[in-house]
Amino acid sequence: MVKQYVLAFVCIPRCLGFVWPDCSEADVKQDGPFGDMHQFNATADDGTLIFVYHPPLPDKGPFPVMIYSHGATGEYPMYLSAFQRYVSHGFVVIGPHIKGPKADTNPFTTDPHGNFTIKGVHYAVKAAADVSSPLYNMLDLHNLVLAGHSMGASSTIMAATKLPAGTAKVAVAQHPGICGPFGPPPCIGHGALCDTWMPADFEDASSKMPIVLTTATNDGAFWPAPHTAEHELGCFQKSTTTQEGHTAFAQFSASACADDGTGGRYDRKWSTGGHDCPMRKVSPETEWVLVASKLYAQFGGSSTSQCYAMLWGAGGTSLQKDPAVEKSVINSGSNSTTLVV
Questions:
Q1: Has this prediction a pTM greater than 0.85?
Q2: Mapped to the 3 state alphabet, what secondary structure does 3-43 carry?
Q3: What is the DSSP string of 143-187?
Q4: Rounded to whole angstroms, how far apart are CA atoms 248 and 143?
């Protein structure tokens, strides 16, 4: 059962008069003005570890919150380059675990159902009100972002369907599993046997908040490349039949999502190409996550902001014009545009 939380916002004196820099004032391709990333570990209600990445505290908070859900067999060190960018632009990134940092790297430890994403939301609510937490009074829970990769992207979509409307302002699903019922992974009825999301889930979630879905031409995680991307586009199109609200699809080129050789450490190596493009040291996907997050968690979705023009517009500053984008579909209210390079 999803807990019903009242998301309280306390504006402490240091936030008075503060104005977030628009996407024209803070380069989203570079680190932002909020300093280096710091980390501490915390504990969720079920005893599992929560990783917290944040700007220097206390500083110019309260900061909007991003709940980021990792992929299957994944770990948060895989995404640190992207996290540094998000944190430096004024976000606190919370990384929940299914069982724990080591156990989550086991291929049998999965949760595409949204539960560990929701666990991160519950932690944020408690930490913001806990006088013993470093996050006390430092989180703007009215401006919460859901994001995730692979299994974590499926979890993000499902969490968006389960959480009460208004809990999150925007969701970004990077390379989610292919939608059901056939997948892969399959969806054999709703419940424990459904390991992916259905078009109806995406449509339900997008009725509550804008959603961005990203993939890459050389993503071969579920079908041989480029068919994973084709299927994900098909899932997106089946999930946005009414074209109400704001939804976006972006497919990045194989060259932009080539393995850059930076994935790994002394005891483990990982790919940064194709399906794992979000793990690149410099990933073209990072700007899409950041611009969407800034637009809705720092600018309230304002159509007059440069962040809005970059995400939903078709002008010279549009993210669609990035050479890394091979295909994009933008549904903005009654408007729909498709760009194929």
A1: yes
A2: CCCCCCCCCCHHHCCCCCCCCCCCCCCCCCCCCCCEEEEEE
A3: EEEEEEETHHHHHHHHHHHHSPTTS-SEEEEESPPPPTTT-SSPB
A4: 20
Q: Are 287 and 28 in contact (CB under 8 A)?
A: yes
Say if residues 150 and 176 touch (Cβ distance below 8 Å): yes
Neighbours of 251 (CB within 10 A): 25
Task: Return the ∠ at Cα 221 (arms to 280 and 320), rounded to 5°.
Answer: 55
The pLDDT value given to residue 1: 40
Structure tokens at 54: 């944040």
Q: What are phi and psi of 128, to 5 degrees?
A: -65, -25
- Asked if 151 and 110 touch (Cβ cutoff 8 Å), the reply is yes
Give the phi and the psi of residue 311 in degrees, each rounded to 5.
-85, -45
> What residue spans of 43-150 are helical by DSSP H?
80-88, 115-129
pLDDT at 4: 45
Instruction: Please state, in angstroms and as integers, the Cα–Cα distance from residue 179 to each residue in 8, 175, 223, 228, 295, following that order.
Output: 35, 11, 13, 11, 27
Find the Cα–Cα–Cα–Cα dihedral 270, 274, 279, 282, rounded to 10°.
130
- Calpha distance 151→336 (Å, rounded): 28
Q: What would the two tokens of residue 166 be?
A: 């208004």
Residue 60, burial from CB neighbour count under 10 angstroms (0-12, 13-18, 19+) = middle
Q: Is the pLDDT of residue 224 over 50?
A: yes
18-340 maps to CATH 3.40.50.1820: yes
pLDDT of residue 192: 78
Termini Cα distance of the chain: 44
Round to whole Å and give the CA distance between 233 and 182: 15
pLDDT score for 12: 40
Spatial distance between the Cα atoms of 110 and 107, rounded to a whole number of angstroms:
7
- Asked if 147 contacts 293 with a C-beta cutoff of 8 angstroms, the reply is yes
Spatial strand order of the sheet with 325-332 comes to 38-43, 49-54, 92-96, 63-69, 139-149, 170-174, 211-216, 246-252, 325-332, 335-340
Nearest to 277 by CA among 82, 101, 75: 82
At which residue do the structure tokens 């996407």 appear? 23
